[in-house]
Design goal:
Elements lengths: L5 E4 L14 H12 L9 H4 L6 E3 L5 E5 L4 E8 L2 E8 L7 H10 L7 E11 L3 E5 L7 H10 L5 E8 L1 H16 L2 H19 L5 H18 L4
Parallel strand pairs: 1-5, 1-6, 6-8
Antiparallel strand pairs: 2-3, 3-4, 4-5, 7-8
Helix pairs in contact: 3-4, 5-6
């Protein structure tokens, strides 16, 4: 993973969204920060470049610096002896693009060396996948990033959220579309979309939170394979 310098997790900033499925990108960065904390750094990299901000601390004592230019929380850690920047855009998931573009500019990171961590409804819960130069799959945050960067050529660590109930909702919508009845299709699509929104904004159950420890460990190992 020697070439990777910037890891960006997607999530929503408000307290009500903490530990929700849509914020799994933020949660994974917190996991990385706990694994490898750069304690008492003499002078944060972004301050040396003139980026002022407000230091914030989580319960595990990781220091997150708020960078006004990118509207993101930032910290520096070491992964497998490589210094990397972790960033959490505070723009809400669906408007992540401009923050990601500014972060790449601030830290002089080529898009091909960027890794975005996000939730994915096409991958079963319990699984993760590394992708490069792939379509958004309908993820609004990834669509925003692709529009801002004008490229798909960046890495993504996709954390699966798909559950059996979601698959059933999608099947019902597909059956309604095949029926050819416009009203039935609209109603089914509406119910599916409402189900998806409710699901991604719901919190992980205690059992699922326990599983996340194993999921994040496996995701970390995959992350180290990126060269």
């Amino acid at each position: 993973m020697n070439a990777t310098k910037l890891l960006i997790g997607l999530g929503n900033p408000d307290t009500e969204y903490q530990n929700t499925r849509h914020n799994v990108g933020f949660m994974f960065l917190d996991y990385l920060a706990r694994r490898s904390l750069v304690a008492d750094a003499p002078q944060p990299l972004w301050r040396r470049r003139g980026e002022g901000g407000l230091a914030k601390k989580t319960h595990d004592k990781t220091t997150w610096e708020f960078d006004k230019k990118s509207n993101s929380l930032i910290t520096k850690v070491k992964l497998d002896k490589t210094s990397v920047i972790l960033a959490k855009p505070q723009t809400y998931v669906n408007k992540s693009g401009e923050a990601v573009k500014k972060l790449c500019s601030i830290f002089h990171v080529p898009y091909s060396m960027l890794v975005v961590i996000h939730d994915d409804l096409d991958i079963p819960f319990g699984n993760t996948k590394i992708s490069f130069d792939k379509n958004s799959g309908g993820h609004k945050g990834i669509e925003s990033i692709m529009r801002a960067l004008k490229t798909k050529k960046f890495y993504r660590l996709r954390v699966g959220l798909a559950k059996p109930a979601l698959q059933k909702a999608r099947l019902r919508a597909a059956e309604a579309r095949r029926s050819g009845e416009a009203e039935a299709r609209q109603q089914s699509d509406k119910k599916r979309d409402e189900f998806v929104v409710k699901m991604v904004l719901s919190k992980f159950s205690p059992s699922e939170q326990g599983q996340l420890k194993k999921i994040f460990k496996e995701a970390y190992d995959k992350l180290l394979q990126i060269k």
